[in-house]
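Technical appendix A lists one of the benchmark inputs used to test multi-chain prediction within the project. The record comprises two sequence entries:
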Amino acid sequence: MLQVELVNIGTELLMGFVVNTHASFLGRKLCNIGATLVRQTCVNDTADHIRASLEAALAGSDVVISTGGLGPTSDDITRNVVADMLGLKMRVDARAMENIETRFRRRQVEMPESVRSQALVPEGATVLYNAHGTAPGLAIPISNRRARWLITLPGPPRELNPMFEDQVLPLLVQQFQNQLPISDCRIFRVVGVGESSVEERVESLLKDIPGIEIGYCARSGEVDLRLVIRGEQQNEVHRWAQEAEARARKALGDTIFAVGDTSLERVVVQLLQTQGKLLATAESCTGGHLANRITLVPGSSQVFREGWITYSNHAKAKHLEVPGHLLSEHGAVSEPVARAMSEGALRKAETDYALALTGIAGPDGGTAEKPVGTVFIALSSKHHTEVKHQRLQLDRETFKFAATQTALDMLRKELLKA
Amino acid sequence: MLQVELVNIGTELLMGFVVNTHASFLGRKLCNIGATLVRQTCVNDTADHIRASLEAALAGSDVVISTGGLGPTSDDITRNVVADMLGLKMRVDARAMENIETRFRRRQVEMPESVRSQALVPEGATVLYNAHGTAPGLAIPISNRRARWLITLPGPPRELNPMFEDQVLPLLVQQFQNQLPISDCRIFRVVGVGESSVEERVESLLKDIPGIEIGYCARSGEVDLRLVIRGEQQNEVHRWAQEAEARARKALGDTIFAVGDTSLERVVVQLLQTQGKLLATAESCTGGHLANRITLVPGSSQVFREGWITYSNHAKAKHLEVPGHLLSEHGAVSEPVARAMSEGALRKAETDYALALTGIAGPDGGTAEKPVGTVFIALSSKHHTEVKHQRLQLDRETFKFAATQTALDMLRKELLKA
């Protein structure tokens, strides 16, 4: 099996002012070609630490990927540490230099002299040109260690991600054809059921399947069930993977919203697109989080045209025609107000569906009767309005995600009926 | 200096279906007490790998913190691996068991038998009770290795984060008083200037300050400048830190929006609160991202009452009274339409300020004249509307962040004038 180790370089990752998304991105992409990310290590921008981590990784894996430290500032030293460690001379790469100059010219900002250092590359390295930034990546063949390749990539995800997909993955597939195992990895995305319940429903049904590895990953409002089947024969692995999927689907039904790398909002937008339906949103406590999730999906403008954020009672009455007596009798956080918000949004936007949320995100604003975390979620169609009541004891950000997760799932189930 | 090492346990972190936010959170909190996160390693849920990583960390640092693998499912084995490695017997902790039972009773869901295993703790360990979940953390004193404490924490951030702040940090401060160094760490959050320009402006001014360490961290639409001063004497360290801050502020002016752990939206909400001003938003291309950022700030309901998401031309005309001839003559993505959107939002919401964004997030929808990434950002007050035009060549999510970053910064600068 092709074993890959990741070394993230950057004091900022250990000082905590940036979240490291590289392991998540690379792990997912490597899993898809049958390679395994066996370890990830993060070190600070010190030559000794970088070198020690890279040496340990080069001794223990087939491929080592490093991220970060390729930029123009004085703490970017990966390039020099690697050249020094491997005894490689540096040369100026003309195409990398041209890319740097072109990017600055196009942005019409003055070019600091220091950025030119990014065009220095070790001799013998394959240069991975950067379509989204100035620092090129490097793929360096290794001869005197266990690892056969050291691949250094720039830190910013918007530069690293396309470089990895377009240049590194094809290189790995070509170089390690024989080492990529026969395996089938399927990740079932489950919504509306807890982790323990998912395990109780599937574990006994799945555990006797030959070569299976079962994993669970719980997030707020979502559980991933990961099934990997390994074996000797392609057709056997495929057959058992199909069998495992059939059993998982039987046990979990329509709580599985997708298989693989997607999001609930993407699934919902696709269903709306396929059925040619329009959606409007009316949000109080989630403050635009639902609309933001929907509009993160490319092409969502075909199905989503307008939404309201009505934090105040006044805005609920004015824009969504929520009757004043409902607000005064039941309060803004109530079943009747959620219902009136989604029906108002449906009417005003003239859409096929509307989703509305009203609740108390916290940390303040709760009462004994309606504690922090209380939320009412309404889905309206032309014929019917359904309201769910939940209590989500979560921080503000997770509350928003979990509440909009329920809203999206209500709409998904409604669209599946059609 | 107190050196801390972090070991994240979880195959899901290496398979890529969850982003590891622990290093970011813990690194920031440790930096605040003068401790240093020297390394972070992520391993899968295999007993051998967990044990090898923990042993390496216990040999190289003063404190080792592990995350994950304390849950109820079959791949949660951290507790047993640790007890086995350290030769500790397990006991049932009555209070942890009570917490588990109470949580299930309150959620009114049936309790799977497997969750009881989470109340098993090694003898001699201090139990860190979990206010937000069922798995307790453990603080285990270590006698025969370099490290003096091994602290195991649950994986979900909403459980780990409060447990770390409320229980682990006080323990570390109490146990390691003498090892916490004299240092001053200040992080300047800069908006509207690139990383290279920040370095060019400050590096030569700061580098001769005794005991200084300068670091830069670039994100889309933001740069962090990190200054750490170390020394022998508290008053000297403090004096040089003040001097460094004065020089950084002189060089960077009002592009510094904050010092330390906050967000631009939090700074803007605080300015609005202090000045008693109200804000409305009108979003096209950002689809609720701006409103979502603002409403992530607790207490934002005092300054933000309503917002619109007007993806379609029809919605722009209907809700924000954007004149039809502007839309047909200039197109929805134009300076006049951005201006009309923010002035319409200001008028309809009767607020002191309104922000509006219209642009092309991509990946499709661009033209030669208005390529993907074009965005017009408008800020209206009663007397004046200002419109900025940007071209942000970014993926959809980063585009939204960078565009709303500019919008928030326009409002911040306006509020600073008042």
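Chain B touches chain A through 102 residues (CB under 8 Å). Residues 396-417 of chain B form the longest helix (22 residues). Comparable benchmark entries are summarised in Table A2.
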